[in-house]
Amino acid sequence: MFREPEYKDKLLACLIDNKLALPLHGTPSTHIFKTAIQDFTDSVFNEYFCMQLAELCGLNVPPTAIHFFDKTPCYVVTRYDRKQLIYGQTVRLHQEDFCQILGVDPENKYERRVG
C-alpha cells in the first residue's frame, strides 16, 4: 500500500501581533509551520514553489513563506480555514475533506487499494 510521506515536524501556531504563540486550550491556530520531510530535504522549497506556481496560474492560495530557524528552512502557510473577526478573535471555518464526506477513517487517509 502507498503511504504519502509525512512531515516529521509540523507545528500549528498562532501569530499574534507578529509574535509566534502556541494555541492552547482549544485556541484556533492561524499558521502551519513545516520542516522538511525525512529523505525529501527540498520538500519545503518544493511546497512553496508549487503554491507560488498555483497562484501564478490564477488559483486562490493562502499566503505562504519560507522562514529559517537556525539555518533550517521552514515552510509557513497561513490557514485558509480561519477567519479573524473585527475585534481580533480568530475562529475556525467549517470544512470537510473528501475523506470525511466518504466516511474514510483518518488513519486510512493516505492508503490506496492496488489492483
Description:
The chain has 115 residues and is α+β, with helices and mostly antiparallel strands. The chain has two helices and seven strands. The protein has a five-stranded antiparallel sheet with strand order 2-1-3-5-4, with helices on one face. The protein is globular. The model has no long low-confidence stretch (mean pLDDT 86).
Topology diagram in text:
Layout: E1 10-16, E2 19-21, E3 31-34, H1 43-56, E4 64-69, E5 72-78, E6 82-84, E7 90-92, H2 98-102
Antiparallel strand pairs: 1-2, 1-3, 3-5, 4-5, 6-7
What's the short version?
This protein is α+β, with helices and mostly antiparallel strands.
Shape annotation: globular
- The helix-and-strand class reads alpha+beta
Count of β-strands: 7
- Please outline the major beta sheet: 5 strands, antiparallel
Proportion of residues in extended strands: 25-35%
Mean pLDDT: 86
* Alpha carbon gyration radius: 16 Å
Please, how many helices? 2
What portion of residues is helical?
10-25%
Low-confidence stretches: none
Secondary-structure element order, N to C = EEEHEEEEH
The end-to-end span amounts to 11 Å
Strand order of the largest sheet: 2-1-3-5-4
List keywords for this structure.
17% helix, 2 helices, alpha+beta, 7 strands, two-stranded antiparallel ribbon, 115 residues, 5-stranded antiparallel beta sheet
